[in-house]
Write a structure and sequence with these properties.
The chain is mainly alpha-helical and 83 residues long. It is built from three helices and no strands. The longest helix has 34 residues, at 26-59. The N and C termini lie far apart (57 Å).
Amino acid sequence: MATIHLSDADKAFIDEQVEAGTFRDADDVVRASLTLLRSRQARVTELRALIKEGDDDIAARRVYSYDSAEALLADIRKLEPNH
């Protein structure tokens, strides 16, 4: 396993979390942090894919133009289940 070097502030934060009873020990704090990082990275990957999809749609001219915000809103409302 790799050695991890933490700043004094990070060490203090981990200690605070354990002392507050939020986590059982430093390993739990690090595990939770890694879980959040994985989740964030998955979300970033998902957002990048959606941005690419939008860019591809623009490049292929699969876009709509609206004369007003009301016209856009009317189109969005058509997508709602009640319409």
